[in-house]
Structure formats: C-alpha cells, structure tokens
C-alpha cells in the first residue's frame, strides 16, 4: 500500500510538505516553511529518495536547503532560478540555514519542463503541469506503480496578465490532493477586471490628492502582476504616469520573469518581442534616488514583504503618518503580521523601535494568484474525476468547507487531514 504523510500545510497556509511512501521509495512533494514564524517540517532527510517542489513560494520550497537532501530535487527551470533568490533572502534574514546549504541544494537540483516525463525513483514517474499561479508553478502528477496522484500545488484557474490559466488537460487521477486557500463558499472574489479597476481607482484617488501609494507585495508573482497591470493602465492613459519605485528581492525576481518569457502568458511574450516591456516602467531604488521618494510627489512604491513582516517596505511605513498617503494590501495577511494589524485598523504600528501613528488610508485589494471558490469548482470539473480527495493549503474553515463541497457536489470522498496524519493514498 502507498501511504501519504501530511507533515504540514494542513488546516493552514504555510509549510506545505507531503511525504509519499511506497513499497520501494519515499519522496517529498514540497518542503515549505511557515513564512510567518519560520517554522519547518519535521522529517528525516536521509530516508528521502527524491524531492519535488511545486513552485518557488516559501511555504512550498523554503525548508529545502535546511535538510541537505542527498538525493535529487526536481522543479521547473524558472522555479530553480526563483528559489535561489528566495533561499538567499531567507538565509540572510532569518539565519534558518547557512549559505553553503543553498549551494548544496542547487547542486542537487534537476530542472524539468512542463509535461516532461521523469522517472524519479524505481516506481515513481513524475510530470509537472502548469499551475497558472506564478512563473514556473506546477501541479505534480505522479504515476506510482500504475496508480495516479495529482497534487495541485497552488493553482489559478483563470488567465492573468502574466500567466496562462492552470493546465487541466490531464489523463486520469486516482487520488487528488488539492489546495483550498479560498475553499469556503463565501470566498467569491471579484473578476480580475473588477479587481484591476479597484486597484487603479484607489491609486488614482491618492495620486490626485498628491499623495503616495505604498504597495507591499510578495517577491514572486504578485509584484510582477501588479507592475504589469500598472504598465497597461498607464500605457492606455487610464492611470496618470507617476514614478513607480521598486525595492527588494522583487527586482531580481522580475528579472527572472523577463528572462523566462516563454513560460509567461503569450501576450506578454509578444510584447517583449515587440520591445514593449510590461515590467520596464519602474525605477529601482538606490542610494542616489531614495530621497526622491520622500521629496517628490506623488509616486507609487512597490516593495517586499507582502505581509509587511520585514523587507524594505518597513522603512516606508512612516509615510502613513500623513493622511494624504495610502497603503494597499494586495494579499492574504497572516495573523500576527504587521499587515494584519494594518488590515484590522491598528491606530499605530511599531515596525522598528518607535511607534508610528496610522493616519494614512489602509485598503485591501486582494490580487490573489489563487483560484477562488467558484474557480476551484470549475477546476474540479475540468480535471478527470478522482476516486478520493485530500484537501490542504487552506485555513481550517476553508479546508473543511471545501472537503464538504467535494462530497456534496461531486460525490467523491474527501477529507481535510490534520498535520501529522498518515493515510492510505490509494
Ligand atoms: Zn504559492
Ligand atoms: Zn502556497
């Protein structure tokens, strides 16, 4: 019997890590860390014959260098480049692992293309499918002695500015492990167009008042999507052209987006080929120009980290002393982050030693790279019907709700396992 051990990413978003034990081999699918407290899964790395990383977000790849795996680590070509930057960041900021571990992990990586079959152990063949979530993101499809598992990873079922929608053209599935970030029936998000308009309206209102807009973002995915949206609206003159300052690791990750254009939405690829660079309207903050941000008005500042927990964004929070300025939160804000405090209406925040009164406006335009509830259901309808489903990568309510939805709407047994669960996979 093949069994699955859920090490993390159960009833939570963070630390996704699933171990699959067959008669002949043991592999990990994802090996993430919990970005809000840097906690890591508890595994024995010496047992592991292969690691497959679905994409380069820290909740899926962050713990890999910590374990010094001696066997190969598989991921897509762009994911490898992106992971290198993120791992370096983590090792610098949190000292979770030393730099030499990153080098060792890089030496063990085998980069693959989408849909390329790869025998990763004596009884497991792997294929990665485009998950539509961030550059190089994949759903992991495993043939385990003839039985088929699809681990969706983080998926986006709709097309975005930067990426195609998730690839659902998949053969057959015995067991499905699906994410549930927006798995509750109340998790219905506005259309992409409406969201873009909301973002542009919020920015325009502040620019008109002569204020500055601060946008905290995740280095991979959200930042490139927002830069591409701003480019599009400025180009079509629906948004006034003001300086866009960028800072942090997103500068490097955006470079990687540009250098892997064949993995992006073909529209972006065409633009790049016609020398229209959707990521090119930005000014990188350096020593010489950093004072402009405070002296010149208005402007837009895009910087990491997305949950306002560290990164260069912290130094711009003092701009919130002025009611003219605005911060736009663009994604999920975990508990106990500064982003969550702002979202919850904190009157003052303490990013460093001194308290900062929050007089500027705080708004949230959730620019998610995940499928919402309806979109998850559409995804389920597009893929072949599995015999069994495990639901993970969602807060408790979301995971449990989506498991119920699958039972009710699709008549497939579905559970949302807790961390530590050991269950039969087939
Ligand atoms: Zn992700
Ligand atoms: Zn994730």
From TrEMBL:
Task: Identify the PANTHER family for this entry.
Answer: CLEAVAGE AND POLYADENYLATION SPECIFICITY FACTOR, CLEAVAGE AND POLYADENYLATION SPECIFICITY FACTOR FAMILY MEMBER
Q: What is this protein called?
A: Beta-lactamase domain protein
Question: Domain of life here?
Answer: Archaea
Name the Pfam families on file.
Answer: Beta-Casp, Lactamase_B, RMMBL
Key word Transcription regulation present: no
Q: Where is the Metallo-beta-lactamase domain?
A: 14-207
Whether Transferase counts among this entry's keywords is: no
Q: Enumerate the cofactors the protein uses.
A: Zn(2+)
InterPro entries, A to Z? Beta_Casp, MBL, Metallo-B-lactamas, RibonucZ/Hydroxyglut_hydro, RMMBL
Q: Which GO terms describe its molecular function?
A: exonuclease activity; metal ion binding; RNA endonuclease activity
User: Keywords on this record?
Assistant: Exonuclease, Hydrolase, Metal-binding, Nuclease, Zinc
PROSITE patterns for the chain: PROKAR_LIPOPROTEIN
Per the database record, which ranges form the Beta-Casp domain?
223-342
């Amino acid at each position: 019997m093949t069994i699955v051990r859920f090490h993390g990413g159960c009833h939570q978003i963070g630390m996704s890590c699933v171990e699959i034990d067959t008669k002949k081999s043991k592999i990990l699918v994802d090996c993430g860390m919990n970005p809000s407290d840097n906690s890591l899964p508890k595994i024995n790395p010496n047992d592991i014959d292969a690691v497959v990383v679905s994409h380069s977000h820290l909740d899926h790849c962050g713990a890999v260098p910590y374990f010094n795996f001696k066997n190969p680590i598989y991921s897509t070509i762009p994911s490898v480049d992106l992971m290198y930057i993120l791992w370096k960041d983590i090792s610098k900021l949190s000292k979770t692992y030393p730099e030499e571990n990153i080098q060792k992990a890089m030496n063990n990586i085998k980069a693959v293309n989408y849909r390329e079959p790869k025998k990763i152990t004596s009884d497991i063949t792997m294929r990665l499918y485009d998950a539509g979530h961030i550059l190089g993101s994949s759903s992991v499809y495993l043939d385990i002695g003839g039985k088929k598992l699809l681990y969706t990873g983080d998926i986006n079922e709709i097309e975005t500015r930067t990426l195609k929608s998730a690839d659902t053209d998949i053969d057959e599935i015995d067991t499905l492990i699906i994410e549930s970030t927006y798995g509750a029936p109340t998790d219905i998000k506005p259309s992409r167009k409406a969201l873009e308009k909301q973002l542009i309206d919020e920015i325009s209102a502040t620019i008109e008042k002569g204020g500055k807009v601060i946008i905290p973002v995740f280095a991979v995915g959200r930042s490139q999507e927002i830069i591409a949206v701003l480019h599009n609206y400025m180009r079509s003159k629906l948004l006034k052209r003001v300086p866009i300052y960028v800072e942090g690791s997103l500068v490097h990750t955006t470079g990687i987006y540009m250098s892997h254009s064949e993995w992006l939405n073909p529209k972006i690829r065409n633009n790049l080929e016609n020398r229209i660079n959707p990521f090119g309207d930005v000014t990188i903050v350096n020593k010489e120009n950093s004072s402009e941000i405070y002296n010149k008005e208005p402007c837009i500042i895009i910087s990491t980290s997305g949950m306002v927990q560290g990164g260069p964004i912290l130094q711009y929070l003092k701009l919130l002393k002025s009611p003219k300025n605005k911060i736009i939160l663009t994604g999920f804000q975990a508990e106990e982050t500064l982003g969550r405090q702002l979202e919850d209406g904190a009157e003052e925040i303490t990013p460093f030693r001194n308290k900062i009164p929050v007089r500027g406006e705080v708004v949230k335009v959730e620019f998610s790279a995940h499928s919402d509830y309806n979109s998850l259901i559409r995804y389920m309808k597009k893929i072949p019907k599995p015999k069994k489903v495990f639901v993970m990568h969602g807060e408790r309510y979301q995971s449990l709700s989506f498991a119920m939805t699958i039972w009710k709407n699709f008549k497939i047994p579905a559970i949302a396992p807790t961390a530590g669960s050991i269950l039969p996979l087939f």
